[in-house]
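Long-time lurker, first post. I've been practising inverse folding by hand and with some scripts of my own, and I keep getting stuck on stretches where the structure tokens seem ambiguous. Below is the full token string for one chain I'm working on. Before anyone asks, I'm not after the true native sequence, just a reasonable design that respects the backbone. If someone could post their per-position residues I'd love to compare against what I wrote down in my notebook.
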């Protein structure tokens, strides 16, 4: 996606007055912020409170393959707080931001990861400088949370607070690829699609009328309580423990 420098492509800012906006006056604006280099720009949406001092800035980063539009229900509520300006950005290469070519040149795995992280966080830092924002609160969701942490580690001096909403970036589980997979016949998802609805309903009703046969799901907490009661009656205090996996070296 190449940049179009013509101004007629930009949306005009929308202003609300205190007569129609109980939390106004406010200005809602969408624009492309050009960065250095060829075909590099971040799409920005902001809500600015007018006729008051701007003391705090909130910057919001979306998740993988998404865009700032996923926060559209949050803009109005977050911009009600006096003294705050709200910014939402499309990550470079996503949403309405430009899509400059990117290629990892490093051969080492860790260096490759750092190179990919820098491609995003350096663009965010360049945007901060362009916007002349000294310090701000950074909120990231999913991949945006991962990049928010990467930014905080590389540029810690410009953050007031870091807010992570369901961030990704979980270390690889070395046992995940070696774990035994259940047989197709044992798959709950497969059963849900293959079972006949009437047969399932009749089977459930028969369980309701016969409490002695009602066992429910193996993961149901009612079964756990029933098992505990049986153990109390029998005097058996032994509780089976889940198998532990060895920690990776």
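-- Answer (accepted) --
I ran through it position by position. Result:
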């Amino acid at each position: 996606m190449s940049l179009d420098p013509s101004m007629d492509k930009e949306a005009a800012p929308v202003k609300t007055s205190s007569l129609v906006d109980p939390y106004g006056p406010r200005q809602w604006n969408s624009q492309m912020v050009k960065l250095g280099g060829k075909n590099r720009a971040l799409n920005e949406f902001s809500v600015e409170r007018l006729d008051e001092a701007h003391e705090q800035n909130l910057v919001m980063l979306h998740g993988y393959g998404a865009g700032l539009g996923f926060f559209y229900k949050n803009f109005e509520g977050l911009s009600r707080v006096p003294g705050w300006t709200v910014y939402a950005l499309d990550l470079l290469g996503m949403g309405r931001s430009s899509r400059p070519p990117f290629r990892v040149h490093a051969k080492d795995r860790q260096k490759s990861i750092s190179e990919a992280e820098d491609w995003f966080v350096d663009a965010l830092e360049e945007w901060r400088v362009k916007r002349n924002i000294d310090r701000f609160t950074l909120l990231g969701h999913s991949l945006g949370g991962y990049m928010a942490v990467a930014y905080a580690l590389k540029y810690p001096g410009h953050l007031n607070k870091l807010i992570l909403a369901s961030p990704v970036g979980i270390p690889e589980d070395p046992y995940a690829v070696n774990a035994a997979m259940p047989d197709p016949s044992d798959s709950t998802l497969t059963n849900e699609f293959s079972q006949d609805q009437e047969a399932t309903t009749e089977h459930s009703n028969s369980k309701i009328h016969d409490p002695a046969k009602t066992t429910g799901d193996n993961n149901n907490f009612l079964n756990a309580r029933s098992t505990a009661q049986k153990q109390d009656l029998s005097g058996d205090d032994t509780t089976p423990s889940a198998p532990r996996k060895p920690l990776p070296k």
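A couple of notes from the structure itself: The radius of gyration is 27 Å. Strands lie at 14-16, 26-34, 41-49, 56-61, 84-89, 136-141, 159-165. Happy to go over any region you disagree with.
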